[in-house]
Design brief:
Helices cover 7% and strands 43% of the residues. It is mostly beta strands. The radius of gyration is 46 Å and the shape is elongated.
Length: 713
């Protein structure tokens, strides 16, 4: 008959439904004092025991006095130590003591450290070893506290490793280097280990960094580490963190890459009480280096001081001397209530300052100003930068979305593609001189109050496929979708104009100093209201243009204003046409005298309204008209004598100054005359008319309405 060995312990897992038992007791026992109960590792004495068989294993159980949930209940044997009895044992006492010795030996076996005789590997099951001292000898056990001290750069009690990992962090042995910074190395008795991670988690610099905690210390630690090593990449773990202190550092010549785990996953917010001014400032000089920030959201609660920034990332103080690379990708800068859900007035005074960089790049960056009348002054400032590129950048509720002003520098290039300026006072304010200054904007949208794009100085500026919506009445000068001063070459193509916020609005304003301008493909959308589509000022130079397409429902008081008589040239679009007709009260022409036909009605392009008169068509000013073409038809009454003639005139001059035709009288029917000119040059104010002549020997009437069609280009 085989012997049954009963386990001296049983583990029960209680789920979310609370339970007090009963829990079975799977081992024999003599009395209740031999039973121990632990809940989640803590001893419990508040329980009752139900005994069905004191020396058996069937039906015995215990019940807790208080129900537990999501807990582990362990029922185990806790037999008293073996005892010595001086008097002779009775048979019953001896049997009981032998049972006790058996229980003790079984429990000792179950709880002992086992060593495999083949491999020599020791196993303590699910237990752990406590209360060991820090290691001293080479083969001493490593403790958690000692390892954490090593990770923070404690070189006093280093632990030697040639390869492998330490708390999940890989290290490399560096034997012959000079004394390294503590943050970058573990240094033990002349042996050094450098951290190998491509990207460091910020918890490496603050072991207490957790979701909902503070992050300033960790950020400063990471920047210090990058300064010591010359380059570093760090990761902000998911969570919402408070920036409890301003982060400021000089990172001249340092390559620093810091990213979160996504704008929705990683958020940082600052309070004006603890960070009243600039939140994060990383300044540098002219040494080569790089800064890249990506994949997190930065918010602010309370009103920031004037002149301060959310991200202050300037290059060298001397204009144009910074050769660092700056890249901002997938960032959100926004009021803190968008992060924390707490209501309240909050705004950055300025979002991003990135002056004096070569080729800075912003991609998929979102800047959200505060509520109210633009408490955020500037979205992005790039004074002194060259080669700035913005892709899919959006700015909302900001006074000036993008600013690049003169600070002693000339030149600089700016490229915008697919950007959005929504609810801004001014979208783009560019004041940079020099022939090397260039602006290229495509596929971008400007919803503004005062100015969409404001240019003062550039070698060239090109805007294509951009949309402009003027949203409300401007308190000062008339708002303009695009205004240009001192631009050597301005090109605007395929842009749309919408909105009815201010009836004084100007579509494209070409100011003095703009040498060459080409305006084509403009479209004014339904519901748009503006005073002037194109406003050409004194000193604007040569302007080539195509009249905008005006949709039904749009209101444009004047298509083009050229009060100072700039050099205008239409380069595209259909010719402007007007037709003049004589009434049924036909003119009677005297014999052998050139007589002017008197016209009574006209119809044609709205831009030519007012150009028609009894004597013909006056070439209008301000429309860039340089050439005309004329077609004339007239008919004399039947007469067999003499001939008939017709001429197109300019300013009543010599008949053949335009075109002239002569035919003989036709027997038996009226004589018809037609003349068509080629394109010929004209100038504003000239009058184009028609004269006819007949030599029948007496007066001869015209028998059908004469007409003249004029096309201008």
């Amino acid at each position: 008959m085989s012997e049954t060995i009963y386990p001296r312990s049983a583990t029960y897992v209680v789920g979310s439904t609370a339970s007090a038992g009963p829990f079975g007791i799977p081992f024999p026992f003599v009395d209740e004092d031999e039973i121990a109960v632990h809940v989640n590792g803590e001893p419990v004495t508040a329980y009752s025991v139900t005994v069905a068989s004191r020396y058996g294993t069937e039906g015995n159980s215990l019940t807790l006095e208080a129900a537990v949930s999501n807990a582990t209940v362990v029922v185990s044997s806790d037999v008293l130590p073996a005892r010595s009895i001086g008097d002779a044992f009775t048979q019953v006492e001896l049997a009981r003591e032998l049972d006790r010795l058996f229980y003790l030996s079984q429990e000792a076996s179950e709880r002992a450290v086992t060593v495999d005789p083949g491999t020599g590997v020791a196993d303590i099951g699910s237990g752990r070893i406590q209360s060991t001292a820090d290691p001293v000898e080479d083969r001493d056990m490593l403790t958690l506290g000692y390892a954490e001290r090593v990770l923070t750069g404690d070189a006093a009690n280093g632990y030697e490793i040639e390869r492998g990992t330490l708390l999940g962090q890989p290290w490399r042995y560096e034997r012959d280097e000079t004394a390294p910074p503590a943050a970058a190395f573990v240094d033990t008795a002349g042996r050094r280990y450098r951290l190998l991670n491509d990207e460091l988690g910020l918890r490496y610099f603050d072991r207490d960094l957790r979701d909902g905690g503070q992050i300033g210390t960790a950020l400063l630690g990471f920047i210090d580490y990058a300064s010591e090593t010359g380059r570093a990449a760090g990761v902000i773990p998911p969570g919402l963190y408070e920036l409890e202190q301003a982060v400021a550092a000089d990172v001249d010549g340092i390559a620093l890459y810091l990213r979160g785990c996504g704008r929705c996953a990683t958020g940082i917010w600052a309070d004006s009480a603890s960070v009243p001014a600039t939140a994060i400032s990383l300044t540098g000089g002219s040494l080569p280096g790089a800064i890249e920030l990506a994949d997190f959201t930065l918010g602010y609660r309370g009103q920031q001081q004037a002149g301060s920034w959310a991200l202050d990332l300037p290059g060298a103080a001397a204009p144009g001397y910074s050769h660092r690379s700056l890249a901002l990708r997938r960032l959100d800068l926004a009021p803190a209530e968008l992060l924390t859900g707490e209501e309240g007035q909050s705004a950055f005074a300025g979002m991003i300052r990135a002056d004096h960089h070569m080729n800075p790049f912003l991609g998929d960056v979102h800047l959200q100003g505060g509520s109210g009348d633009w408490p955020t002054a500037t979205g992005l400032q790039i004074d002194g930068c060259t080669g700035t590129e913005l892709r899919q950048v959006s700015m909302h509720d900001i006074a000036t979305g993008l600013s690049s002003l003169s600070d002693g520098t000339t030149g600089g290039t700016l490229s915008l593609d697919g950007c959005l300026f929504d609810g801004v006072q001014t979208g783009l304010d560019w004041q940079r001189g020099g022939m090397l200054a260039q602006i290229v904007a495509s596929g971008s949208t400007f919803l503004y109050r005062d100015a969409g794009v404001k240019l003062d100085g550039a070698g060239s500026a090109s805007l294509s496929r951009c949309g402009f919506t003027q949203q409300e009445t401007a308190p000062g000068d008339a708002p303009a979708d695009i205004s240009s001063l001192n631009v050597a070459s301005l090109t605007v193509d395929a842009c749309t104009h919408d909105g009815a916020g201010d009836a004084r609005r100007i579509g494209i304003q070409v100011g003095s100093g703009t040498d060459r301008t080409r305006l084509t493909g403009s479209a004014i959308l339904p519901g748009a209201d503006m005073a002037t589509a194109f406003d050409i000022a004194d000193g604007a130079g040569r302007v080539q243009f195509e009249f905008p397409r005006i949709a039904q429902g749009a209101s444009v008081a004047q298509n083009i204003v050229n009060a100072d008589g700039a050099d205008l040239h239409r380069v595209a679009g259909e010719p402007l046409e007007i037709t003049l007709t004589e009434s049924d009260d036909f003119d009677v022409i005297a014999n052998a005298v050139w007589a002017e036909i008197s016209f009574d009605a006209s119809s044609g392009h709205e831009l030519l309204d007012g150009s028609a008169g009894a004597s013909g068509v006056t070439v209008p000013a301000g429309l860039g008209i340089s050439h005309a073409r004329v077609i004339v038809n007239s008919e004399f009454d039947s007469n067999t004598t003499g001939n008939r003639g017709m001429a197109v005139l300019r300013d009543g001059g010599i008949p053949n100054a335009g075109a002239q035709t002569t035919v003989n009288a036709v027997v038996g029917r009226p004589t018809s005359l037609s003349a068509q000119t080629a394109w010929f040059p004209v100038s504003a104010g000239q009058v184009l008319g028609v004269q006819v002549v007949q030599t029948s020997g007496g007066d001869l009437a015209l028998t059908s309405p004469s007409n003249m069609s004029v096309e201008f280009r």
